[in-house]
Automatic annotation (TrEMBL):
InterPro entries from the UniProt entry: Cu2_ascorb_mOase-like_C (IPR014784), Cu2_ascorb_mOase_CS-2 (IPR014783), Cu2_monoox_C (IPR024548), DBH-like (IPR000945), PHM/PNGase_F_dom_sf (IPR008977)
Gene source species: Phrynosoma platyrhinos
Ranges where the Copper type II ascorbate-dependent monooxygenase C-terminal domain occurs: 2-70, 71-119
Keywords: Copper, Disulfide bond, Membrane, Metal-binding, Monooxygenase, Oxidoreductase, Transmembrane, Transmembrane helix
Cofactor: Cu(2+)
Transmembrane segments: 228-246
Protein name (Swiss-Prot/TrEMBL): Copper type II ascorbate-dependent monooxygenase C-terminal domain-containing protein
UniProt xrefs under Pfam families: Cu2_monoox_C (PF03712)
PROSITE patterns: CU2_MONOOXYGENASE_2
Gene3D superfamilies, per the entry: 2.60.120.230
Amino acid sequence: MGVLQTGVFIFPIHFIPPGAESFKSYGICNTSHFEEMNGAPVPDMHVFGYLLHTHLAGRGVRGVLYRNGEQGDEFLVECRYQTLDRTEITFGGLSTLNEMCLAFIFYYPRNNISSCMGYPNIQQVANELGQEASDAIEGMTAIDLVEWNNETIKKAEKACKEADQTVVIKTIDELVRNETGFIREIADNIQVPCKDISRTRIASQAKRNFEHQAFPPMTSKAHKIKGIFPLPTLLFIPLGFTWLFTSSM
Ligand SMILES: *[C@@H]1O[C@H](CO)[C@@H](O)[C@H](O)[C@H]1NC(C)=O
Ligand SMILES: *[C@@H]1O[C@H](CO)[C@@H](O)[C@H](O)[C@H]1NC(C)=O
């Protein structure tokens, strides 16, 4: 089996404004070049599990599979954050006080692709927020100068969603290739009840209030990532992780 890391590229281009009741981040993975990067044909990826990951400001994560595109599957990770208790901007990074937006996808048979993560064009985002920026570095600096209020927070969320994405794809041999992509609309969720986890030892973690999200229906047409959700093999998943899974079997 293999694990594919998807979501938002871990870098300070990922930012979350302070004082946000709700702020969503998006990272797209475009699989159209998996084959040429893999060094051998890529068999269909049968997904049997996934692990969602944020840090302290995370409130919800969902994954969305797009199968209509001409070039192969795309997998979007959306993370929702709350920063009402913060007065400074939160950047993407490794520390617990920085943020991440990740979905680790467990699948078989394994291939050589280890991660596939997207991030928005920060220069475009800065410009949308009325800041001068002629490249990514200036864009990142400019984001820190924005005066945050409900209006600019909403504007930033929209700008990050609508900006072009760079998709960084890595193999286990650290071969890197950058793709481009964009965030498509997300169809309405099928609502499913949360799994009853009250009797498990990880109930306290659930207080962090992660959401269980269903995934929009997928159109067929065989493609690279096959049957990503729903995931039938919960039996093989260690108990400690079951709270992360939807119960839409
Ligand atoms: C990984 O890449 C090598 C070439 O670098 C290739 O020979 C091998 O078959 C690939 N492995 C898989 C599982 O695709
Ligand atoms: C891909 O993007 C990353 C992040 O911006 C950058 O560090 C890297 O140099 C780029 N790699 C290539 C091959 O363009």
